[in-house]
Q: What sequence folds into this?
C-alpha cells in the first residue's frame, strides 16, 4: 500500500528530511500524482500517521483479546510500541510529536488521540490483571496505564538514540513488575 511506504519513509527520515521526490520514488508514483492524490506532503504525512495509529491499535486489540496472563502481553506491547530490539526508529508518532509538536496542531491531535487510546487499552489490561490476581488491586489502574504509556514514549526515544535492547528490556520488566 502506498501509504505504508510513505509511512515507512517518514518513520526512517522524519517529516522535514523527507522530500516529495523521495516519497514519489518510494511509492512508485510520479511527483505530480503525489500532489494530485494527496494534495500535499503534509496531507500525506497526516494520512501516514493515521495509518500508523490504526495499525498499532489493531495490534494492541488483537494482543489483549487473546487469552493468557496479562503481564507478558504488556511487556510485549511496550517493546513493540517502542521498537525495542527491532530497529533504531523508535515510534513514528513519538518522532512526529517531537519533531512537529510545537508547530503542528494536527500532528498533536493525532498523537494525543493515539496516546489516549493506548492508555485506555493499558488501563483495561491492568484492570483485567487486577481482577485475575496478577496485579496489585490496591494500585490505581489509571496511574499504572499512564506510567506504561510514559515509559513507552521514553523507551521510543531511547531506542531511536541507540539504546541497547537489554537496557530497554530492564525498563519494560521493571515497569510491568511494579503493577
A:
Amino acid at each position: 500500500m502506498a501509504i505504508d511506504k510513505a509511512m515507512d519513509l517518514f518513520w526512517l527520515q522524519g517529516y522535514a528530511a523527507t522530500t516529495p521526490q523521495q516519497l514519489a520514488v518510494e511509492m512508485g508514483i510520479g511527483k505530480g500524482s503525489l500532489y494530485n492524490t494527496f494534495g500535499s506532503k503534509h496531507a500525506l504525512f497526516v494520512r501516514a500517521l493515521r495509518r500508523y495509529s490504526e495499525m498499532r491499535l489493531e495490534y494492541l486489540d488483537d494482543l489483549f483479546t487473546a487469552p493468557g496472563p496479562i503481564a507478558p502481553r504488556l511487556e510485549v506491547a511496550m517493546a513493540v510500541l517502542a521498537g525495542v530490539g527491532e530497529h533504531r526508529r523508535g515510534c513514528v508518532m513519538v518522532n512526529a510529536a517531537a519533531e512537529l509538536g510545537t508547530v503542528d496542531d494536527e500532528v498533536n491531535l493525532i498523537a494525543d488521540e493515539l496516546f489516549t487510546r493506548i492508555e485506555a487499552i493499558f488501563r483495561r489490561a491492568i484492570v483485567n490483571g487486577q481482577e485475575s490476581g496478577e496485579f496489585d488491586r490496591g494500585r490505581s489502574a489509571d496511574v499504572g496505564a499512564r506510567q506504561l504509556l510514559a515509559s513507552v514514549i521514553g523507551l521510543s526515544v531511547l531506542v531511536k538514540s541507540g539504546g541497547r535492547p537489554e537496557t530497554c528490556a530492564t525498563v519494560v520488566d521493571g515497569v510491568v513488575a511494579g503493577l
